[in-house]
Write a structure and sequence with these properties.
Elements (H helix, E strand, L loop, with lengths): L11 E5 L2 E9 L5 E6 L2 H23 L3 H12 L5 H19 L9 H7 L8 H20 L28 H11 L5 H10 L3 H4 L7 E2 L6 E4 L2 E5 L2 E5 L9 E4 L2 H12 L17 H12 L6 E7 L2 E7 L6 E2 L2 E5 L8 H14 L4 H8 L4 H12 L3 H12 L6
Length: 404
């Protein structure tokens, strides 16, 4: 078969500094005329072909939606097949960590470098948050590629490894620490929150969404039901009727100390919520932080605050001494020489269940763990982190050898 001859267009010529050049003009992505030059028609033809292809790609990229537009569309598509709580989590992270960083860029213009730069701020957060944001980036750009919104997926080499700040495991509170914590906050707004964490093992979002219609104090076996979750959007509370997982929906028996605490609280309550704000409504995020400050201000952790003196903002550092009263508030006594987090209350509850020899399946149910792996990981760390338990277990395992 005879090779087909390539037809080269006829180009105009121009002499520059005594040298003959072939010339043509094309419109760039902005519609402006651009001149191309070459020494031969063949060279000019190749230049023109490459330039037109680049312009076509640039034009395509400009026609693609912005990251903000496509992310909102992607979130809408997810609403069809994910739980409300999951969608709420997606929406918060997409808007905060993707749209806020790259929202104005066109989807087709986003490079891997752009995404990695956007992830710098996320890398300062926990490893779990970093991982979830990376997964969202990959899901969104993969969907755009599959829908032919973009030609290339910039996230194919993006990885979650090594990103974010690893969270240190918080030890459960000892019996003595629990007693001191309860003494420190007794009579304060935080007391009921702390009791629900320590003796029902509820998550923060479960405590703050708990209503009295889910607390059953009459009868021989008082219990509560977990069926709502607290969430905030722009600092405003949102109470979700659908929980993140089916396992989170559970009935929890109340020990006598917690049942008595809730009975007394209910008698004096005018709200439908167990832990409300002053107006009887669920707490905002800021209000919850203030609620937890009742605990923080009673610890001996060094902290700083600012005051205006002579019109200037002056930083002051406080180094509390155990047993002393706060300088500016005689009602506050520094009585806690250990730090406490809301999640630590729940961890203490789970740890106490394990130390009381509650079987792993029951622990999984009461904790609301969807995966038995989560329960067993905690179980293994807690159960065999005590030398007395390990010795007893080993003794039982090898007792049969004694008779040999």
């Amino acid at each position: 078969m005879a090779k087909r001859k390539m037809i080269i267009p006829e180009y105009g010529t121009v002499i520059k500094k005594g040298v003959l050049y072939y010339r043509t003009r094309i419109k760039d992505a902005d519609g402006k005329l651009v001149a191309l030059y070459a020494r031969t028609p063949e060279e000019l033809y190749n230049k023109e072909t490459i330039a037109l292809e680049q312009i076509e790609n640039a034009t395509f990229h400009r026609k693609t939606p912005t990251v903000a537009e496509y992310c909102e569309k992607w979130l809408l598509m997810q609403s069809v097949h994910v739980r409300t709580t999951t969608l709420t989590d997606y929406t918060s992270k997409v808007r905060r960590h993707i749209i806020a960083e790259l929202g104005d860029k066109r989807m087709g213009e986003v490079s891997l470098d752009d995404i990695q730069l956007a992830l710098v701020s996320v890398s300062k957060k926990s490893a779990s948050v970093y991982k979830s944001v990376v997964i969202l980036y990959k899901s969104i750009f993969r969907a755009a590629k599959e829908s032919r919104i973009i030609d290339n997926n910039p996230t194919i080499y993006l990885t979650t490894k090594g990103g974010g700040v690893p969270q240190k495991d918080k030890a459960a509170l000892t019996d003595e620490q629990v007693e001191r914590l309860l003494d420190a906050v007794e009579g304060l707004p935080t007391y009921v929150f702390v009791m629900l964490g320590l003796y029902a093992g509820l998550r923060r979002e479960e405590i703050l969404a708990l209503k009295w219609d889910s607390v059953y104090l009459d009868g021989n076996f008082p219990y509560l039901t977990v069926r709502r979750a607290w969430h905030t959007e722009n600092n405003r509370p949102v109470i979700l009727e659908e929980l993140k997982t089916k396992a989170a929906e559970r009935n929890i028996p109340l020990p006598t100390c917690l049942a008595e605490c809730l009975k007394e609280t209910k008698e004096n309550s005018t709200s439908e919520y167990v832990v409300p704000n002053r107006d009887g409504d669920p707490l905002s995020y800021t209000q919850f932080k203030r609620l937890w400050q009742y605990v923080v201000t009673r610890t001996v952790k060094e902290r700083s605050y600012y005051r205006y003196e002579d019109g200037k903002r002056v930083k002051h550092t406080v180094t509390p001494v155990l047993g002393e009263k706060a300088a500016h508030n005689g009602n506050v006594v520094y009585s806690l020489d250990f730090e406490v987090t809301p999640h630590q209350l729940r961890h203490t509850y789970i740890t106490n269940l394990i130390h009381s020899s509650v079987d792993p399946k029951t622990v999984q149910y009461l904790a609301g763990h969807e995966s038995s792996k989560i329960t067993m990981d905690i179980y293994a760390k807690v159960k065999y982190n005590r030398p007395d338990e390990l010795v007893r277990t080993m003794g039982n395992a090898f007792s049969q050898w004694d008779s040999v």
